[in-house]
Write a structure and sequence with these properties.
alpha/beta, six-stranded mixed sheet, 11 helices, 51% helix, globular
Length: 251
Amino acid sequence: MEGFVKSEIKDGIGTIVFFHPQSNSMPGYQLRNLAEEITKLGKDDKAKVIVLKSEGDKAFCAGASFDELISIKDMQTGTTFFSGFAGVINAIRKAPKFVLVRVQGKAVGGGVGIACSGDYTFGVKDASVKLSELAVGIGPFVVGPAVERKVGKSAFCELTINATEWRSAQWAKEKGLYAELFDNAVDMDKAIEGLAQRLANSNPEAMAMLKKIMWEGCENWDTLLIERAGMSGKLVLSEFTINAINKFKSK
C-alpha cells in the first residue's frame, strides 16, 4: 500500500486525511502533498474550517520516514526533506481558517509538531506523545517552534531531552497540546463535528482576523524553519545518526 493525502469539502467543512502504511510516517512527497492540500483548502471559499486527521486507529503520525532518512546522502537532500515538515507547519499557520487536528493515536517527532500546529487539537486518552529525534542523533529543530509555542519552553525541553519516554495524553492535555481529551474516537469525532459545524456557520472574516492574531510573532517561520531544517539535514549525515537509525530500524 502507498501513502496518500486526500481532501473534501462538505457543508463548509474541509477535511484532509493522510495515510501511510508505516504507522502514518511521513516521506517527503507526502509532506509536500499535505502542505499543498492545506494551502488549497485555505484558499477555497467553500471551506470555512479545516479538519486535519490521519487514517487508521493506531498511530496518528510516526514522524519522519526512516526509510527516507537513511537514504539521504547529502546536506541539500536532507534539508529539503526536513523542509517538508516546515511546509506543513507553515501551511497551517498561514491558512486564514482554523485548523482542527484529530489525534486518534500516538504521535512521534514530526507528528507532535503537526498536532501542536493545530489551532484546536483533539485527542483520545491513548494519544501519548514523544519527541524521539535526539534518540536517533538529530533534534526536533523544525517542529520545535510549533511545540514550544503550544506547550511552553519547559515542557518542550522535557520532551526533547528525555527523548525515549512517552508522555501521556493527560500530560499533553495539561500542557495545552490537546484542547479536549476523550475516552474513545467515537466521542471525539462527535465533538469535532459539532465544533466544525459551528465554525462553518461563523463569520469567516472574524475567524481570519483571529487566526492572524493568534499566530502573531511567528511571521519569521518561513525562514526560521528552513534554517532549522538545515541543522537536521547536516546531522542526518553523521555516522552517529546513521548508526542510530539503522539500530532503531532493526528492532
